[in-house]
Design a protein that fits this description.
Elements: E1 27-29, E2 36-38, H1 42-57, E3 71-75, E4 78-84, H2 87-92, E5 98-102, E6 118-123, E7 130-137, H3 141-154, H4 178-190, E8 196-197, H5 202-208, E9 210-213, H6 217-221, E10 229-230, H7 240-247, E11 252-255, H8 260-271, E12 276-279, H9 282-290, H10 294-297
Parallel strand pairs: 8-12, 9-10, 9-11, 11-12
Antiparallel strand pairs: 1-2, 3-4, 4-7, 5-6, 6-7
């Protein structure tokens, strides 16, 4: 036994003759991390059952595929799902990875009922190999995680996602789907067009960088880092020398609400020869990372009466 489960080979055989085991009772090897553990999910168990039945009567049986652990739950009005490995599993396995965060709506924003969903995707920073993804939102999470699970199984890289020909109609998606957005961001990172800083690097940003918040003044007033200077991205080109002077040789850590405007600002700064990085997923990701500490870390401007 291993972790309370029966050790089997790639065909479900145990160490006893004519005895096989699958599902919750058996040890599986994770497709991404190669971690050995039971995977208590009905899908992998059902598929393994078919292949074990074939193995019993076949001289050249097909091996049981290593599971990705694709799973989904509903919590109130929200759906949460994952596939592959998460940050903790990748770190424990010693796997180098880059994480990107996107926060699109489940279909085009102008169509009634648009609601934001959130995707976190991990990939190898050298090869672009997809390693895992997690998503949460009111609608559309299942579709995106299923597409990402298929992409991982098929061996697609993160940039390959931007070439997927996914169905589009205003009630169901967007011409630039959430999954293709992940591919675009990943390609920008791997080609060097985008340099990210992560919420886990907040201490570094506050201590060693010049924090530039490129949201509107109204958004900034609703909560910002106390060290941050607010220059809306549409004003940045006219105020580059102001940024250069205040940065005083420090890298510029840019952020916005979801990561789109800060990417634009990052490209403007880079074109001007200013060292900059953009916060992955913006303030939405940072607030999620801080959790209950958000009220202690972020500052609100007083409301005029």
């Amino acid at each position: 036994c291993l972790r309370g489960a029966i050790v089997v080979d790639q065909h479900g055989r145990t160490n006893l003759p004519h005895v096989w085991a699958v599902g919750d009772a058996a040890v599986s090897v994770h497709a991404v991390t190669a971690d050995q553990r039971p995977v208590a999910l009905a899908g992998p168990a059902a598929r393994a059952g078919r292949l074990v039945a074939d193995a019993i009567g076949s001289p050249e049986p097909r091996p049981i595929p290593r599971p990705l652990g694709t799973s989904i739950v509903r919590a109130g009005t929200l759906t949460a799902a994952m596939t592959g490995a998460n940050r903790a599993a990748l770190t424990a396995a010693g796997q180098d990875f880059t994480t990107v965060h996107v926060h699109p709506t489940q279909h085009v924003g102008w169509f009634p009922g648009a609601q934001q969903l959130h995707l976190v995707v991990h990939f190898d920073p050298a090869t672009g190999e997809l390693l895992g993804a997690q998503g949460v939102g009111p609608e559309g999470v299942d579709k995106r995680i299923d597409v990402l699970a298929t992409a991982i199984r098929a061996g697609l890289s993160a940039p390959d996602l931007m070439d997927l020909d996914l169905s589009y109609s205003p009630p169901y998606g967007a011409a630039r789907d959430a999954v293709t957005m992940v591919g675009l961001v990943a390609d920008n990172v791997l080609t060097g067009q985008m340099r990210l800083w992560q919420p886990e690097q907040l201490s570094w940003a506050r201590a060693e960088a010049f924090v530039l918040d490129v949201r509107t003044a109204e958004e900034f007033a609703q909560g910002h880092l106390p060290e941050a200077i607010n220059i809306p991205h549409i004003e940045l080109r006219q105020r580059l020398e102001e940024v250069r002077h205040q940065a005083a040789g420090r890298p510029v850590a840019v952020l916005c609400q979801s990561g789109v405007r800060s990417y634009i600002a990052h490209r403007v700064l880079a074109a001007a020869g200013i060292d900059s990085v953009t916060l992955s997923g913006g303030m939405l990701t940072l607030r999620a990372h801080l959790g209950q500490q958000s009220t202690d870390v972020l500052v609100k401007e007083p409301t005029e009466r």
